[in-house]
Amino acid sequence: MHQNRLKERGFNQALEIAKLLSKALTIPLDYTACQRTKHTPPQASLNLKERIKNIKGAFSCQQNLQHLNIAIIDDVMTTGASLNELAKTLKQAGAAHVECWVMARTLPK
Question: What is the pTM of this model?
Answer without folding.
Answer: 0.86
